[in-house]
Amino acid sequence: MTNKPRHPHRKPLWQKLAKVFRPWHRRLGIASAILVVLVAATGILINHSNELKLDTAHVNQAWLLDHYGIKAPNQIMVFATEPLLAASDNLLWLKDKPVLEAQGPLLGALAYGNHYVAIDDQHLYLLDQAGNLLEQQSRATGLPQDLSALALLPQGDSQQLWLNTASGSYLSDADLIDWQAAKPLVPLDWQTPLANETTSGVSQRLSLAARAMHLNWERVLLDLHSGRIIGLPGTLMMDLVALSLIFMAISGLYLWQQARPKQRRLK
User: Fold this and answer.
1) Residue 156: which region, alpha, beta or left (left: phi > 0; alpha: psi -120 to 50)?
2) With the C-alpha atoms ordered 82, 83, 84, 86, is the resulting torsion angle positive or negative?
3) 228 partner at 20 to 30 Å CA-CA among 30, 43, 163, 235?
4) What local confidence, expressed as pLDDT, does residue 197 receive?
């Protein structure tokens, strides 16, 4: 009489694990394929961010700026259109480029000889024709305080620069070094922002450009790569993709290892 095995149909453990791993390996691979491609593609782009200049390329898509909650400037003022001289809050724009970040909201800007002059309520900024800051004046340099407006008064072949303040009007010398309280002999045409159909389009363009200053494509790619672009759900989703990849790597190695003896027997 022979002894029969108690469980003649019981499969070995490696076969059971292989049976469990194989369908899940396939399902997770298919389910995460798109996200894996996204992670890989964004990773390559981030790796070459400097070469592609993504860290300095600003996002100009309004819907994406809205998604990040980047708001439009509170105020845009156009002081000249040829060449463009405008302000968006504390940013001064010259020829469609931001050239100055003032310490407060800008109140006025104009061309003065071969230079540009801009003011906020406590500072005066002197720039060259390219928009480079040459000098910044404040109370410490003798500048009047509580500024409100600028004005130019023709004086022969030159111009006088005037400042309007809460305490009265001030006239500068030719080098914009000394400021003296004075009363103009003629009414001054204090600068006010331009307002017409042309400036309306300029204001919209500058509004978008000012918002774009706060977001570059490198930041967007980093958020896509990590899933943070849609907040906590995106981060958790990318965590699941990472766990899926770990599982597929382990299960793939296991299935490959268990398939090797079968291949040998078939030879």
Assistant:
1) left
2) negative
3) 30
4) 77
